[in-house]
Design goal:
This protein has three helices and five strands; from the N terminus they run H-E-H-H-E-E-E-E. With 87 residues, the protein is α+β, with helices and mostly antiparallel strands. The chain starts with 9 loop residues before the first helix and ends with a strand.
Length: 87
């Protein structure tokens, strides 16, 4: 339910989620959008971008802004991270 404390590059975000163990991972682009649409129910989001696991092109990944909902692609910016877990 909470962000990983530090904003990070995509590859660091990927491993930080994986290091949480037992099914934790970065959300897909679609899962991230669902989280945005339900952000008031979930809570704890910054009004900033969050990484997804969905690749846009080689070395670029989708991210979503939790202030206005816009999705864009990016390289290695420092971006927020919210891990999800599959059941």
């Amino acid at each position: 339910q909470y962000d990983i404390p530090n904003r990070m590059y995509w590859d660091n975000a990927f491993y930080a989620c994986e290091d949480l163990g037992d099914g934790w991972r970065l959300p897909t682009k679609n899962e991230l959008n669902l989280m945005y649409l339900n952000k008031d129910k979930i809570g704890g989001f910054a009004k900033d971008y969050y990484w997804s696991s969905s690749e846009y092109s080689s070395g670029q990944f989708w991210k979503q802004n939790f202030d206005h909902g816009y999705q864009s692609n990016g390289y290695t910016n420092y971006v927020n991270v919210r891990a999800v877990r599959s059941f």
